[in-house]
Amino acid sequence: MKAVDNEPAPGSRTPDEGFGDTDIAVVGMAGRFPGARDLTAFWENLTEGRESVAPVSDADYLAAGGDPARIDDPYLVKMASVVDGIDEFDAEHFGYPPAEAELLDPQQRLFLECAHHTLEHAGYGPGTTRGSVGVYAGAQQSRYFLDHVHPRLRAGDSLALHHAQLGNVNSTLATRVSYELGLTGPSLSVQTACSTSLVAVHLACQDLLDERCDAALAGGVSLN
């Protein structure tokens, strides 16, 4: 998102169609959703009425840590919204060694990729953003560290523990994106439960209008 100058480009608008003081232009977007790997597929799912919630087999339910004692419970709803490709993080592209990438919460991996794609969609290549770009981001509290990382940590491996802690704390999400994408500007991690993404966008708009940054990247991620 970018704040829009009051003065339209010559010939682009008539004088009475100029932008207002509070207008904000959305110049790039990206996203990953259940049943949709990009915004085009997501929009097609919406317009064609495709359902993105699917039944979960008993085997998948148990593999995901489900309680075997509840497998035949008539009140158990074995349905899920599955985001494909969360294991396809391009660690090399972002300069992460494989071992460090494995310690990184999949939510942070996914958000970092989407942030990169958003800048590309807006027409910015690596290192080509201009001015101050703020990042406003939030993530759901993840069990990835407890369920998958902590059991594999070796005693005395302080470097792995350091990477694991930084990679699984929600408060590092926004600053990670700012650092990895070379963005300078406000960098705020947002945590307001179900409204996190909306609040992130709201804060981004506020800072744009208050001229705390020239452009802003805002959003959220939630994976179980």
Automatic annotation (TrEMBL):
The keyword Cell inner membrane does not apply. InterPro entries: Ketoacyl_synth_AS, Ketoacyl_synth_N, PKS_Beta-ketoAc_synthase_dom, PKS_NRPS_Biosynth_Enz, Thiolase-like. Pfam families: ketoacyl-synt. It comes from the Bacteria. Residues 1-21 are annotated as: Disordered. One of its GO terms (molecular function) is fatty acid synthase activity. Keywords: Phosphopantetheine, Phosphoprotein, Transferase. GO terms for biological process: DIM/DIP cell wall layer assembly; fatty acid biosynthetic process. Signal peptide: none annotated. One of its GO terms (cellular component) is plasma membrane. Residues 21-224 form the Ketosynthase family 3 (KS3) domain. This is Polyketide synthase.
